[in-house]
Amino acid sequence: MKIRLLLVDDHAVVRTGLRMLLEGESDIEIIGEADNASDALNQISQLKPDVVIMDIGLPDMSGIDATRRIKQLAPATAVVALTIHEDEEYFFKMLEAGASGYVPKRAAPEELLTAIRVSALGEVYLYPSLAKLLVKDYLTQSLHPKNQAKLNGLTPRENEVLTLLADGDSNADIAEQLSISPKTVARHRENIMGKLNLHSRTELVKYAVRKGIIQP
Predict the structure, then answer these.
(1) pTM score > 0.70 for this model?
(2) Domains with residue ranges and CATH for the chain
């Protein structure tokens, strides 16, 4: 079954480029386009797309507000933000509004295709640099005393390891910085994921949003 897609962007050139990219994919079907939020909402009511590609800067309503309306109108429809904005304010607000994906317009086409397919399955896809930003924000929030209960019993050392993992450090790098063995780092990493009942970075992202630890 094909992923039914609605394109929402106020620039015709962008929509044309997206159509040229996506029409070559056998598992994706573009069922509509809109250059403003009002038209998009009307089409969603009628067409019930699986995924909406959403620009943030729309003329009549922000893509953030439009995403919030979409999730109220059609909760099963996933929204993937495709935008020039890569700062924290827009990123976190889109996630809070209910977006399932966030991809910069400078990203490679494969990133957008992955975001579409992942979000259609009910999962979350974030551009790698932004996912790292979200994990860092999770860690900052979690270290605050009022959020300690949300850590599910992580020890101070596990918090240190988790911070370094979010920075992209390898087990060997972490071992050197903390003066412990790589095997100990691996054990801490396993304990962290076990205590949080997580199995991937995507699940960590969803956990942070669900628990309200992420705040814009």
Answers:
(1) no
(2) 3-126 (3.40.50.2300), 131-210 (1.10.10.10)
